[in-house]
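Appendix C reproduces, verbatim, an entry submitted by the partner laboratory led by Prof. M.T., so that reviewers can inspect both the input and the predicted structure.
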Amino acid sequence: MPRPTFPALFPLVVLLALALAPVARAGERPFITLASTTSTENSGLFAHLLPRFTARTGIAVRVIAVGTGQALRLARNGDADVLLVHHRPAEDAFVAEGFGIERRDVMYNDFVLVGPAGDPAGIAGAPDAVTALRRIAAARSPFASRGDDSGTHKLERELWAAAGIDAAAASGTWYREMGNGMGATLNAAVAMNAYALSDRATWLAFGNRGTHRLLFAGDRALLNPYGAIVVNPARHPQVKVALARAFVDWLTGPEGRAAIAGFRVGGEQPFFPWPKDRTDARGRTGSVPGHGHRRQESTAAIAAAPG
C-alpha cells in the first residue's frame, strides 16, 4: 500500500496542531507570533505567503519584523513562537543553547553591494566581495552600514574581518553606522552617495535608488540562507509549539515551497526554495549551492550553478 504523501497528511497535521494549541477566546482566530527579518517583510514576501498559509490552516501569523539579532533576542525572551532569520552561526547557537527545537532550511537568495553609478572605489571589477570592501576602505568612499546586529550586519562584519579592516574604528568618518533596517540604510546610502551591503530582495523592492546601481554580486561569501526555528517550549511554556510546527511544515512543504518560488518583485524572483540535496561550505546537507565570482548576476543564475 503506498504511503500517504505530505499534501494528504497536512490537513491531519493542522487539525492536531489546532487541537493541541491553547484555547483561544471566543471568536478569536488561533495565531502564532513570527519574529523575522525586515527583508522578508519589506520585500512583500509575507504579504504573498501568509494569506495562503492562513487560508490553508486557519492559523493567523503576527509578524515582528526586526533584524536577525533582535529577532533571536525576542525568541530567547519567549516573545515569539517561531523564527525565520538569516544568519546560520547565530541560528545554530540559538538551537545549541536550548532556545530552539530545531532549525529547518527554508529558502535563500544573496547579498549584493550597491553604490553610486560612478563607482568611485571601482568595486565592479573586483574578483570577490572582500576585495571590493578593501577597495572601498582604500578609497575612503562612504559606506552605509546597518549597524543593527541584523543578519546583514553580521555578515558585513565578517567580510570586513576577512578583509583585515577594522571598519568600526572608522565609524563617523567614511564608515557610517545607521542603526536602522535595510530600507532606511539604503535611503541613507543614496542620500550620502555611499556604498551599502543589501539583501537582493530589499534592493529589488527599493524604490528610491536615484543614481545608485547594483555593482557587485555573485561571490559565494554573499549567499544568504534563511532558516526557520520553533522556539523551545521547555524554555517558554507559553510557546504555541504545535501551531508553530504547522507553519514550518507548510513553509518547507510543497505548498510553501511553491509559494516562495512563485513570488516576484519587478518581474524577478528574489527568493528560492532551499535545495534539499546540496551541502554548504561546512558540509551541512540542504544548504545553498556553491557558485563562483559572478558579478551582478541574478540569483537565478547563481541557483543554476553547480554545487
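Strands lie at 31-36, 60-65, 82-85, 100-116, 143-145, 175-177, 195-199, 212-216, 223-231, 272-273. Additional entries are available on request from the coordinating office.
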